[in-house]
Amino acid sequence: MKLILLGAPGAGKGTVAKLLTQLDGSVQISTGDILRAAVAAGTELGKKAEAAMKAGDLVSDDLIMGIMGERLKQDDCKKGYLLDGFPRTIPQAEALKKLLAGMGEKLDCVVNIDVPRDVILDRLTTRRTCTKCNAIYNVKSNPPKKTGVCDKCGGPVVQRDDETEAAISNRLDVYNQKTAPLAGFYEKEGLLMSVNATSSEAVINAIKKRIGMK
Ligand code: ADP
Ligand code: ZN
Q1: Which of 98, 170, 183, 192 is the most exposed place for a label (fewest CB within 10 A)?
Q2: Which CATH code, of 2.60.120.280, 3.40.50.300, 3.40.309.10, 3.30.70.1890, is assigned to 2-26+80-211?
Q3: Ligand 1 site: residues with CB under 6 angstroms?
């Protein structure tokens, strides 16, 4: 399947994407994960992205399109992909449309995961991430067995730099301004599917139904 997962930070895009990869071998492509890896490795890309990310602002469209133009051409995308955190602006959506048309590819649908703001705020402040394998935990609902240590890979589980109260509030504002308009864009394209759900299982079931998967 070829999907875009749309939704505010903390809506559960990453969790849903990880569950979907288990269904048919599609790969999860998270621009946030790619950027964090670049920052950790201290690459040129990482240096360019770091300040914007820390403040909860968006990285430039050019930088993101450079990454995605390369990423979508890789072999593992043949089985399908789940775009998590991309596109995030109208120019990125327009550029993606051209890119896919050039590759002769079509998206199945764009899933807009709608979660109330208070739920989002609570989730983001309690979220913890493994810096090694990107597994996601929650101090309240899904803590690692040993505090601060990833169950899956033993890596350090920490609160992200952009998950302080100030950065979170900025990320939500940026989302409402720059990314929320994508729902209208994809509605016009006939690709939008909105799910009003707080459980990832309900989201997965709605997606399966829409794309005709058992
Ligand atoms: P979130 O949990 O907010 O969805 P992500 O892991 O997707 O976070 O992204 C973290 C940060 O990486 C964003 O706040 C932004 O600075 C940058 N980023 C990720 N994807 C994009 C994108 N498509 N366009 C611009 N910036 C991006
Ligand atoms: Zn891990």
Answers
A1: 98
A2: 3.40.50.300
A3: 9, 31-32, 35, 52-53, 56-59, 64, 85-88, 92, 162, 171
